[in-house]
Every structure is written in structure tokens, then in C-alpha cells.
Specification:
A hairpin with a 4-residue loop joins strand 4 and strand 5. By secondary structure, the chain is α+β, with helices and mostly antiparallel strands. The chain has one domain: Cytochrome Bc1 Complex, Chain A, domain 1 (2-Layer Sandwich). It contains 6 helices and 5 strands.
Length: 177
């Protein structure tokens, strides 16, 4: 594996596998649920969802269509320590995968209507975990093992923290009220 540090401090890890016809690329960000305050619980996961809802160049449908057209996968996951945005494609489609990841990661618009729509999607996800004993037992274990610590909280937050509107702070993609 090769480790390269860019002039802006970003670390790039790469490992050429010339016998493979596919490529996987990902952006790993140190912003998992353990870094959230109690009232922010679930915000990292929430943002992970929003990155796929449209950019300055592409709608959510265009993002999905472009990756589907080449048989690729574009997805993300949030953990306690980090969030990862990744793409898997045939080697010849690596430029598209890189472009899509860069676009969603740097040009997402975070439209107000998408934020509101995604609240209900995530609350539904939370309910599904609570209705699945083999998933929910992990949530209960974390609550008991890490009492009062950010690691005790569910990665997706709670229905209450996700449903709570956050104060408007401006910034990229923000709309004045």
C-alpha cells in the first residue's frame, strides 16, 4: 500500500491491483457519532444521507443514473468513528466514480425540502432497528456499556434528535430565511 500526503494535508492511500478489472475509491471522514453532542445525535448519519440528494451539477436522480449506467455502486456508511463515501466500478469507469464522489462531497446543495424529507426516512430507519431484535440488542449494549458517553448513543440518533430542527447557521448551500 502506498501512502501519499497532498499539500493540503489530505492522506491518500492506494494499492494498485492490476489483475482486477474493478476499482473501489472512497473518502473517509473523521466525523462519526462519537464526535456529536447529545443534542446533535445522528447528525453525521443525517449528513451522509443528504450528500446524495443533489449537487450544483446533478440532481439526486442524475447521480443515481450515472452510476447505474456503468453498473457501479455509489454509497456511504456512518460509524462511531468515521463516515465513508465510496464507489465501486469497472476500472475504465474510475474517472466517473471520482467525479461523482468529488461532486457529492464538495458541491452538495442540502436543499431545505430534501432535509425535511430525509428526517422521516431516517426516523423510519431508527424504528426498523428498534423492531429488529438482533440489531436493537447492540444499541442496548452500547447504552449499558458506555453510560453517558457519546459511544452509548445510536449512530442514527433518536427520533427526537432527528426530528428536531437545527438553528440556521448559513454556509454552503444554505438559503436565507
Amino acid at each position: 500500500m502506498q501512502v501519499t500526503r497532498l499539500t493540503n494535508g489530505v492522506r491518500v492511500l492506494s494499492e494498485p491491483l492490476p489483475d482486477l478489472t474493478s476499482a473501489t475509491v472512497g473518502i473517509w471522514v473523521e466525523n462519526g457519532s462519537r464526535y456529536e453532542r447529545a443534542e446533535q445525535a445522528g447528525i453525521s448519519h443525517f449528513l451522509e444521507h443528504l450528500f446524495f440528494k443533489g449537487t450544483a451539477r446533478r440532481t439526486a436522480a442524475q447521480i443515481a443514473q450515472e452510476i447505474d449506467a456503468v453498473g457501479g455502486v455509489l454509497n456511504a456508511f456512518t460509524g462511531k468513528e468515521y463516515t465513508c463515501y465510496y464507489a465501486k466500478v469497472l476500472r475504465e469507469h474510475l474517472p466517473l466514480a471520482l467525479d461523482l464522489l468529488a461532486d457529492i462531497f464538495t458541491q452538495s446543495t442540502f436543499a431545505a425540502e430534501e432535509i425535511e424529507r430525509e428526517r422521516s426516512v431516517i426516523v423510519q430507519e431508527i424504528s426498523q432497528v428498534e423492531d429488529t431484535p438482533d440489531d436493537y440488542v447492540h444499541e442496548l449494549f452500547n447504552l449499558a456499556f458506555w453510560p453517558g458517553h457519546p459511544l452509548s448513543r445510536p449512530i442514527a440518533g433518536t427520533a427526537e434528535t432527528v426530528a428536531r430542527p437545527r438553528p440556521h447557521r448559513g454556509g454552503r448551500g444554505a438559503r436565507p430565511r
